[in-house]
Amino acid sequence: MGHATRCIPIINALIDNNFEPIIASDGTALELLKKEFPKLKSIELPSYNITYAKKANSFKLKLIKDSPYLLKTIKKEKKRIESIVKTENISGIISDNRFGVRHKDIPCVFITHQLRVLSGSTTWLSSKLHQKIISKFNECWVPDHIGTKNLSGYLGHIEGYQHSVKYLGPLTRFKKLDLKTKYNLLVLLSGPEPQRTYLENKLLGDLKHYKGNVLFIKGIIESEQQKEILENMVIYNFMTSAELEVAINESNLILSRSGYTTIMDLAKLEKKAFFIPTPGQFEQEYLAKKLNKEGIVPSATQDEFDIKMLSNVENYSGFQSQEYIVNYRKLFRLF
Known about the structure:
Elements: H1 2-16, E1 23-25, H2 27-36, E2 42-44, H3 59-88, E3 93-96, E4 108-111, H4 123-134, E5 139-142, E6 165-167, E7 185-188, H5 195-206, E8 214-217, E9 227-230, E10 233-236, H6 241-249, E11 253-256, H7 260-269, E12 272-275, H8 282-293, H9 328-331
Parallel strand pairs: 1-2, 3-4, 4-5, 5-6, 7-8, 7-11, 8-10, 11-12
Antiparallel strand pairs: 9-10
């Protein structure tokens, strides 16, 4: 979902620069983009069907087990792209972490904030494999600041990396709005199952003891929006970008996963937050520790988290936005 939402500003920029974007994705990511851009043509791609292990220490083992299926999916992607390029008169491809979405005869861009992919003791191997995939594209766009004051840290910055990398600054669909605080706490859930549901159930139980107005967004994209009021909580299955932009701006504190897209959004809106990284996901665990160490956002593991920990936010600075203007006209000259 984060990969889909961070593409929204790029899709808008393509439209503003007189391109005709065609959306290609699958599952809930495709449904979200179709809701955001109902007038654009959309195409369904083969699904990676990524789910997380029930136990954090089984995460790497599950990835290895699923790798044959992922390789088959990449081959299917390549065949699908061959067909799309022929029938749709495509002049360029922008792929956000879809390994097989490229074509040798047209300019192709890979979007990632992970030039280095963390996988514990095998980080050197996962990073080399990812860099090999990136090298097959004409350019790599990294959604982060180029300097030392950045959001992705060790993930998105490798000294001496040779491939054609361009830093875009953080990508977000949101703008900072001057609105009165309506909610003391916004719970913003996301990510693959079953961990999303585990955290939802845990927080719904914990929040019974929370004193304050709560907006709880489950992060489940369905055909219709559903709203439920439960004591001090307003609960939605999902919100559109426009609704979520207002909701975050109206909230004093955000409780969420430490996904990179969420970090970019909250940095732009200069919010205070508390992070619970997805168990076993090395990237989220690293980002949560990085921001904790820098005194920006506190965090806790899913098992250790207690609602009382939210008071720790007072000892952290929260996010501060850094202006970064992308010259999209220049960026899109590749196409």
